Amino acid sequence: MIVVLKRGSTPEQVDVVVKRAKSLGLGVQLNLGTETVVVAILGGNTGQLATDTFAVLPMVESVTRIMKPYKLASREFKPENTIVTVGDIDIGSEHFVVMAGPCAVENEAQITEAVKAVKASGACILRGGAYKPRTSPFSFQGLEQVGLELLVRAKKEFNMPVITEVVNPQDVAFVSQYADILQVGARNMQNFALLTELGKCRCPVVLKRGFSATITEWLTAADYLLAGGNKQVILCERGIRTFEDSVRFSLDISSIPVIKKVSHLPLIVDPSHAAGHYSLVPAMARAAVAAGADGLLIEVHPNPKEALVDGVQSLTPSDFARLMTEVKSLAKVVGRYV
Length: 338
Ligand code: PEP
Ligand code: MN
What we know:
Low-confidence stretches: none
Number of strands: 14
Number of helices: 11
Mean pLDDT: 96
Strand content: 15-25%
Bound molecules: phosphoenolpyruvate, manganese (II) ion
Largest sheet: 8 strands, parallel, barrel
Helix content: 25-40%
CATH architecture of the largest domain: Alpha-Beta Barrel
CATH superfamily of the largest domain: Aldolase class I
Strand order of the largest sheet: 7-8-9-10-11-12-13-14
Structural class: alpha/beta
């Protein structure tokens, strides 16, 4: 249930609402907006009786029961857009944020060449996996700590924040010492132990859409992060499984306007994992800019033919440079800049 307080309510009045919720054994999350305070009352019995309990309070403007399974990710709770700040980069703002780099960190020369190339073309965040959740146990699983160290070296040398995936709940604290943004992979979107751990940390998180998850399930997974108190959540559309087999996954472009309508969270698009082939990536990236995404996550490898992971879908530095020129022009058309 969402309780909106009257404009100008004092902290003491907010406290009355919070205390009443707690006395009923209900959870509370506050959205202290500049104009109004919104209180999400969570869990337990939020039926008519409980609704009335809040509606009678003099400082309460309105009480609405949210019928959707997700609450904190919803616009009912937070009407204004969330902006996630990483250094001087605002994700979810007019700045269209491009994150790029190899699927996996392989060695120092590879990550150095990659960071040089993506930075020169206008990407502002470096991606690189150190822990790779592979479908097969026999595939390359990532360099782990060595990979994280190489990422941080590249980050420092080129002054570029880094995003990297975390797979195990036990590794969250460790990986967040290296990363500026932690990535939850599609296969882990509903790994609730991992989400709970990430909810406790204060590092921004990119939550990829599970490839068989509905938008509602995805936003409900985001609620795990928000409920833990981590407000720095970015969604990432990366394609879903359909009957279509000429691409690796079907990029659900429609999720962009849907998410923008129902949620306040920033949303980026990963055309690489959806496309599965480098030749399809630019068109899908352009479509994402046009449809209103807040950024892109793109795989770029200095030498895709030699890549240990996802070489077929990785752009070469020169293909990426060409795409970035197009992305910059398109961003302007939709009122943003790269
Ligand atoms: C990745 O970003 O390298 C990755 C594994 O993506 P996904 O989780 O979307 O498959
Ligand atoms: Mn990949």
